[in-house]
Amino acid sequence: MPINQDYLGRTFPASAPYEVSRVKIAEFADAIGDPNPVYRDRAAARAAGHVDVIAPPTFAIVISAAAGSSVITDHELGLNYAMVVHGEQRFEYSRPVTAGDVVTAQATITDIKAAGRNTLLTTRTEIRTVEGEHVCTAISTLVERGSAA
Amino acid sequence: MSGQVSYDEVEAGQELAAARYPVTRLSLVRYCGASGDFNVIHWNERIAKSVGLPDVIAHGMFTMAQAGRYVTDWAGPGSAVVEFGVRFSSPVVVPDDGTGAAIDVSGTIEEKLDGNRVVLALTARSAGTKVLTRARAVVRLP
Questions:
Q1: What is the predicted ipTM?
Q2: pTM for the whole thing?
């Protein structure tokens, strides 16, 4: 089934507030195999100029996925997730995601286009603290294989 | 982990030491849990093959995370990643053979910008195939 073109330009509601915890950051750092102490040790993070432990750069995907899941599971959009691979990913940071942040993520579908037999879906997700401070913008292109006519 | 590099000591064109990061089926299962991305193509060989993939493949974001680690290890704790972008050009295929796969990352300082920022051009290969293209990080150095 082709992706529903009516979704181009649509902005989804902001996600529920997500509280960034030290435990989750450490779990993520373990999962990517990165032993850097600024992801685990508050004293090391403070020595590097942060208020608390920071998250690895790609941790922002965990937060943007909270908003992205509303895109992926929207049945009227018509995305077949088993046929989806990641095409491109880009992050623009105002500062590192930091333990104690309470953030929301809001996704907008900025492009839907065919590339051969595939369909490319690009979303731009703004991650801000609940106080309104911009932390990171995540731009994701997903590739749905074989869905274009 | 390296020490701390400073903006004044680096030059455009400078090549950074390469690094190799292993990836096994266990890595992917852990990454599924930590990231919340349980797409079956990252842990179920039967379904991965049924949708036309050669085998289970790593999350693109796992590969990007290794490139991110490469950048932050080089830049040191006093630096900040300002921008980071990649294109996933080919999947990292992770066989269930007791060894798994490896991601080889290398980088070059492509450009020095104002504001103590540098542009790193990154290359990532697995089994000799480029798995990331257009991989760039902009880092602010002390």
A1: 0.96
A2: 0.94
